[in-house]
Design brief:
The protein is elongated, with a radius of gyration of 25 Å. Helix 3 packs antiparallel against helix 4 and helix 15 (274-285) packs antiparallel against helix 16. A 5-stranded parallel beta sheet has the order 1-5-4-2-3. A 5-stranded parallel beta sheet has the order 7-8-6-11-12, with helices on both faces. It has helices spanning 7-12, 23-28, 42-54, 57-68, 72-82, 97-107, 120-132, 149-158, 166-170, 188-200, 224-231, 242-253, 258-267, 269-272, 274-285, 289-309, 326-347; strands at residues 2-5, 17-19, 35-36, 87-91, 113-117, 138-143, 162-163, 208-211, 216-217, 220-221, 234-239, 316-320. With 348 residues, it is α/β, with parallel strands linked by helices. The protein has 17 helices and 12 strands.
């Protein structure tokens, strides 16, 4: 049996999802957890599209079938690996010819329940962007560079708090040094998809902790509706001495390749100034990583302070912490947050 299903129902279902778009479309952005079984390669899709525009739909369909015919058995074999019980959801870009043809082929070869996503991946993207704009209860963890905020988030999660690790989703630590040893970042589109997936697992009416990031995390951009909510949420600012933060940065980056560190220093050279850049590079050559960290923190602290000034000061809660101790700091911050919430309740 073949039937239509809304994107919301498809996401809520336990049925596996097969994305029949081309590999390039899939790589640009896809539903997290979906399996790509493309009808056409990127090149084949381009050729079919050209024939459709320059000649006719009939000729494009005929060409498409010639590409698909040799793959028909592999479609069944691969789909059985994804959905051995014969229950599966299929989508293409707009729920049109590709998903309909693929779904029909599955039902003709023993698949009992094939559901086609109405509106396809386009409907999914509209749904994701709409959901990311919905109100969310948020606690923002702030602090100058080197405060170990991401590690504190992980400790908060261990303490039972709801957490979304934006840097983890972006595969980047958020500074000029943040891409070192991190591998490839997702596309902006895929980052949004992954962010939506993480939030969908959580209770929006209870606080969700996120790190205070700028709009850009490396090459990835936080969607503006979500970013605006984050900017207007309560900020718990971990205020840790500069030298302690420098020591933490040394523990993180001293193991990295010096050439990559030098390239990162050059990327912020205009903001550091020529003299400080030269000093930082000399310290790096002598493996004096602590002094490198102290110089770069002078820039990052000033940058973060300017960002803080754009916030509502009534929503910024400063927490003095003596050192970069992730577990201890997570407990202190959580206790502060609970006291703040209790004071709000008592005031009511």
């Amino acid at each position: 049996m073949i039937s239509d299903v809304s994107i919301k129902e498809a996401l809520e279902s336990s049925n596996p999802i097969i994305d029949v778009r081309s590999p390039g479309e899939f790589e640009s952005g896809h539903i997290p957890g979906a399996t790509n079984i493309p009808l056409f390669s990127d090149e084949e899709r381009a050729e079919v599209g050209t024939v459709y525009k320059q000649k006719s739909k009939e000729e494009a369909t005929e060409l498409g079938y010639s590409y698909v015919k040799p793959k028909l058995q592999s479609f069944i074999t691969r789909s059985r690996d994804v959905a051995p019980d014969g229950n599966v959801t299929v989508h293409c870009w707009r729920g049109g010819m590709r998903s309909q043809a693929f779904g029909k082929h599955l039902t003709e070869n023993g698949f009992e329940n094939v559901r086609i996503v109405t509106g396809g991946y386009k409907a999914y993207r509209n749904y994701v962007l709409s959901e990311l704009g919905r109100p969310i209860e948020m606690n923002v963890l702030g602090g100058y560079t080197g405060s170990g905020k991401t590690y504190v988030l992980h400790e908060l999660k261990k303490l039972g708090e709801q957490v979304v690790d934006l840097e983890g989703l972006a595969n980047h630590k958020g500074s000029a040094f943040g891409g070192i040893d991190q591998g490839k970042q997702p596309t902006v589109e895929q980052f949004e998809n992954n962010l939506h997936m993480e939030i969908s697992k959580l209770d929006r009416d209870k606080p969700i902790w996120v790190e205070d990031e700028s709009h850009n995390i490396g090459a990835v951009k936080i969607p503006m509706p979500f970013f605006d909510q984050k900017r207007n949420a309560r900020l718990y600012f971990a205020d840790i001495p500069k030298k302690e933060r420098a020591r933490h940065l040394v523990s993180e980056y001293a193991v990295c390749n010096n050439d990559e560190l030098a390239n990162s220093i050059h990327r912020i050279s205009k903001r550091l100034g020529g003299l400080r850049e030269k000093k930082a590079i000399n310290f790096l050559k002598n493996e004096n990583y602590f002094e490198v960290a102290m110089i770069t923190l002078a820039y990052y602290d000033k940058y973060y302070l300017r960002s803080m000034e754009r916030r509502d000061s009534n929503k910024v809660i400063h927490i003095k912490l003596p050192e970069v101790n992730h577990r201890q700091n997570a407990v202190s911050i959580l206790n502060k947050a609970k006291k703040y919430e209790q004071s709000k309740t008592d005031a009511v």
